[in-house]
Task: inverse folding
């Protein structure tokens, strides 16, 4: 009799599971994301941003970066590498980053300082920055190459920023419906256990739309100080990911619960050295980051940066990076490093942003033109750039891991790249990678993978403590 009851209950539960799977796990019918009605609405939202608003600043980050590059080009303390007629990389003159295979003694460091007519500026793990008062960077590299204890010696490269009922949501935030954010929230709105690190200019730690979403951070430029944003770029990036939704204030972020780890590696001008950026990546990976967003870049590969990226990936972190804003095919780093998700930008019509870099290192695309978000000093601003596209992808990675924290970083990236928006005509991969992200499709795919029988699988997992 007991056996019959068990069999009957099992059949009953399986029947319920089949019905629930059919109704709850059926992929939502793909709407025409770029339908005429949707396009008209997004066009109005963008026009609202283009006109002067007392609430949202319009910040031309592309032009600001061009001005900054010109200043760097004319700064005698900065040197350049010309990759082609257009693209340049910058590094600090008379400095070198050196990585030792064995820790040098104090006596050895004193001898090096005397030999190079300089001093040790800073160290982190096995990497050191040396500055000379008379030798060029090239001469310094030649000097260190003669030392068999040196793993690498390279210039100290400079990285540049790449640029609900909430008050501004309906009127300004075209980007969220363009990637089907709201429908995706029916699958998950995130988890407090999955942390996203914003390695950037820091974050406005007191912003009313962000402060509750921030966890302990790090200032690589001044470790004793908090990672306070004195530029605005990092706060804007963080807001795209995590501005508190549905609080009646400001803008809505893509995640509802995922904490932001603010890591300051860029200064008030939006620039920072490869040494400090790598320190920030190491710190984030060591302090619980599940996703790291890097809205910064340089055209020159860096050994110290590549080592930091490999370190984060070995710790199973999803690393996302902006592709750059020079309309160039020159590979930008860290976006072009193996295993990093390189992100291009699209506009409100799903077209490639005219400034967005391109090439075979582009993995995916996301909104990056006229994006409304939080800004430093408690403000809001509209910015454009691949810097704005990258956090859309980082937020989606955080949501996917919120569904299944056991997914490896490569599995998370695979879900995002194979569930992109479908278009009638194939899009050039050099511009869009695998396509524009689709939050709903990606989250449904992650959910089906975690719970193949839908809510029934969820119930069994909860019941048996799995």
Result:
């Amino acid at each position: 009799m007991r056996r019959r009851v068990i069999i009957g209950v099992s059949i009953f539960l399986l029947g319920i599971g089949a019905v629930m799977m059919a109704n709850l796990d059926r992929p939502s019918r793909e709407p025409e994301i770029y339908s005429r009605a949707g396009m008209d609405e997004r066009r109005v939202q963008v026009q609202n941003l283009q006109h002067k608003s007392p609430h949202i600043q319009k910040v031309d980050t592309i032009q600001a970066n061009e001005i900054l590059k010109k200043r760097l080009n004319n700064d005698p303390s900065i040197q350049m590498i010309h990759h082609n007629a257009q693209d340049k990389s910058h590094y600090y003159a008379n400095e070198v980053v050196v990585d030792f295979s064995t820790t040098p003694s104090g006596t050895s460091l004193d001898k090096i300082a005397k030999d190079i007519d300089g001093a040790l500026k800073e160290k982190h793990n096995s990497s050191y920055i040396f500055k000379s008062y008379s030798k060029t960077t090239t001469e310094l590299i030649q000097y260190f190459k003669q030392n068999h204890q040196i793993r690498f010696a390279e210039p100290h490269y400079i990285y540049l920023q790449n640029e609900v009922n909430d008050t501004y949501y309906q009127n300004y935030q075209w980007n969220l419906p363009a990637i089907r954010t709201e429908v995706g929230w029916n699958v998950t709105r995130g988890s407090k256990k999955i942390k996203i690190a914003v390695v950037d200019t820091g974050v406005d730690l007191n912003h009313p739309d962000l402060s509750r979403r921030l966890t302990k951070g790090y200032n690589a430029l001044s470790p004793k100080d908090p990672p306070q944003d004195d530029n605005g770029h990092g706060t804007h990036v963080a807001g795209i990911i995590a501005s508190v939704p549905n609080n009646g204030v400001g803008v809505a972020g893509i995640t509802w619960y995922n904490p932001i780890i603010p890591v300051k590696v860029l200064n008030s001008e939006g620039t920072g050295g490869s040494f400090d950026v790598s320190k920030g990546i190491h710190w984030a990976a060591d302090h619980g980051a599940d996703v790291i967003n890097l809205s910064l870049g340089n055209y020159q590969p860096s050994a110290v940066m590549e080592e930091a990226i490999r370190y984060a990936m070995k710790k199973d972190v999803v690393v996302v990076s902006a592709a750059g804003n020079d309309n160039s095919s020159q590979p930008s780093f860290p976006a072009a490093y193996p295993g990093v998700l390189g992100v291009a930008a699209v506009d409100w019509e799903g077209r490639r942003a005219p400034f967005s870099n391109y090439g075979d290192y582009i993995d995916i695309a996301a909104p990056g033109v006229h994006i409304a978000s939080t800004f430093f000093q408690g403000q809001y601003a509209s910015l454009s750039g691949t810097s704005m596209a990258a956090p859309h992808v980082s937020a989606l990675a955080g949501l996917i891991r919120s569904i299944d924290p056991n997914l490896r970083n490569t599995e998370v990236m695979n879900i995002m790249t194979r569930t992109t928006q479908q278009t009638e005509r194939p899009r050039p991969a050099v511009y869009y990678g695998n396509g524009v992200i689709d939050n709903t499709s990606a989250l449904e795919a992650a959910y089906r993978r975690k719970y193949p029988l839908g809510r029934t699988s969820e119930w069994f997992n909860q019941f048996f403590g799995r």
User: Anything to note?
Assistant: The CA atoms of residues 198 and 293 lie 5 Å apart.
